[in-house]
Write a structure and sequence with these properties.
- This is CAND6/7 N-terminal domain-containing protein.
- There is one protein chain.
- The longest helix has about 40 residues, at about 320-360.
- Helix 1 packs parallel to helix 6 (about 295-315).
- The relative contact order is 0.13.
- This protein has two domains: about 20-30 and about 185-455, no CATH class; about 35-185, no CATH class.
- By secondary structure, it is of the alpha+beta class.
- The protein has helices at about 10-25, 95-100, 190-215, 220-250, 270-290, 295-315, 320-360, 365-395, 410-430, 445-455, and strands at about 35-40, 50-60, 65-75, 85-95, 120-125, 140-145, 150-155, 165-175, 180-185.
- The protein starts with 7 loop residues before the first helix and ends in a 14-residue tail after the last helix.
């Protein structure tokens, strides 16, 4: 009895997704209750303020900020220093940073002290009046009545002439108007719980239907791919539900951070490998293997995009104000440069070989079925590119949803709806029924049929033009 063989791409993608799953499982997750330690750095030769990112949160009109500061200590300082309003905590509106009114980057002006800016909300400044140092411990609570997304910073404008050291326990939350309970979930994320629940039910239903179909009718390679994607999304939404629940009620979570939702709008490009994975394994692998496999461009494409997404996850937890923004921009630029480079690796062979097949239309049944797959695969691949970049320019590129705190959830809804629509389209287009002409070829015969269809193609050079 012959054993079923799985092509290398399926194993490769499965291993990468498994590693990414384990990475998110054991990695520390972000929370809205944070412990931050401020310690003096080594010898500094440049006199510039010390600015430290602590947290970011979307407030409603009942917002609260709690700061429990302990082990406070300051170094000796010259007597001529003006210590008034030079060291403390402030909230910077995210919108002010985005539109350029407030540039939190000490490289531009090394003497800038943001505690004295009109665009920030100063929470607390340490008092050194009368030569008396502040107490060793502080318990502070502040009200935020302006609905907006704010970034909490600590700044020492006298650094390095006056060095500071302290432990900060910060919590930012909104009060429920009816019950008065603490809601540690940012204002723009409250609707995500309902969105995750709805999509969890949808993908659970699809998982059950596809699972029953595979058991009753036997599995083609395509059935396994469709079922895998449904299970992947179902797991992602269930885990995200647990994460959001704990975040909302207790302010932190030890559960798995969802692979698909946690990065919000910035990682929409991360769904592209899933599209490619679904399309290539379900449709085009036997065909593309004859064209680009000798140079392993397909492997490189998938590896490159998944690596970029993992890097983005790492960048998201870097607690540096200026570097955080710059690294996100660099990640976006590099990610799309990789896309621009990698798309032709598949598109050019597809276009070239399709033209060849149009001039030399195969007559064998198996080769003709492969040819039908090729044409549909080309249409789908173009649709993926257009869909991804239309979304990028409308949502990610212009930050339409992200700049308005209470509407941040709409970006996730659009993203997940797009994924679901594309998924249903592929399932409908290639549902393996007997009357579907695309699936007349058995899985084990596809590679030989593709090789037969391309046997007269003398070269795989991108600039080859058949006569």
């Amino acid at each position: 009895m012959a054993t079923k063989k799985y092509h290398p791409l399926s194993r490769f993608i499965f291993m990468l997704l498994l590693l990414l799953f384990l990475f998110c499982l054991f990695a520390p997750c972000m929370a809205d209750i944070r412990h931050t330690k401020i310690r003096p750095k080594g010898q500094i030769r440049v006199n510039k303020p010390s600015l430290m990112f602590i947290d970011v949160f979307g407030f409603t009109k009942t917002g609260r900020v709690e700061l429990n500061v302990s082990h406070i200590s300051f170094s000796n300082h010259p007597s001529h220093l003006n210590l008034s309003h030079q060291i403390g905590f402030f909230l910077a509106p995210r919108l002010s940073i985005a539109d350029g009114r407030l540039e939190l980057d000490s490289r531009i002006d090394s003497k800038t002290c943001y505690l004295q800016s009109d665009f920030v909300k100063v929470l607390y400044t340490f008092n050194f009046e009368g030569g008396v140092f502040p107490p060793k411990k502080l318990n502070l609570e502040f009200s935020v009545t302006d609905s907006d997304e704010y970034i909490l910073y600590f700044e020492n404008c006298l650094y390095p002439q006056l060095k500071s050291s302290m432990d900060i326990h910060s919590a930012m939350y909104n009060l429920d108007p009816k019950s008065g309970r603490h809601n540690y979930l940012s204002a723009g994320k409250n609707y995500l719980i309902g969105i995750c629940f709805i999509f969890s039910c949808i993908y659970l239903l699809l998982t059950v239907l596809f699972g029953i179909h595979s058991l009753l009718h036997g599995g083609k390679n395509y059935n396994g791919v469709v079922l895998f994607f449904a299970v992947y999304k179902l797991t992602s939404f269930i885990v995200e539900l647990a994460y959001l629940y704990y975040m909302k009620h207790i302010g932190y979570s030890q559960s798995l951070v969802s692979v698909s939702l946690n990065s919000m709008l910035g990682s929409f490009g991360g769904i592209l490998p899933l599209y490619i994975f679904l399309i290539l394994t379900a449709l085009g692998w036997p065909f593309l293997k004859q064209i680009v496999h000798p140079k392993s461009e397909v492997m490189g494409l998938i590896l490159l995009r998944l690596t970029m997404n993992i890097c983005y996850k790492v960048i998201m937890v870097i607690p540096l104000p200026g570097a955080f923004i710059r690294l996100c921009i660099v990640d976006t630029i590099v990610s799309h440069i990789c896309d621009i480079y990698c798309f032709p690796l598949i598109l050019f062979p597809i276009m070239k070989t399709t033209r060849y097949l149009l001039h030399n239309r195969p007559v064998e049944e198996e080769a003709a079925a492969v040819f039908r797959k090729v044409k549909v695969f080309r249409q789908l691949y173009f649709a993926v590119i257009i869909l991804n970049y239309i979304y990028f320019f409308l949502v990610t590129g212009f930050d339409i949803f992200a700049l308005i705190t209470k509407y941040q959830w709409t970006g996730v809804l659009v993203e997940e709806s797009t994924i679901f629509a594309m998924y249903l389209f592929i399932v409908y287009k290639f549902w393996p029924m007997t009357q579907n002409q695309i699936f007349l070829v058995e899985d084990g015969e596809e590679e030989s049929a593709a090789a037969e269809a391309l046997k007269d193609l003398k070269t795989y050079d991108f600039f080859y033009r058949p006569t």
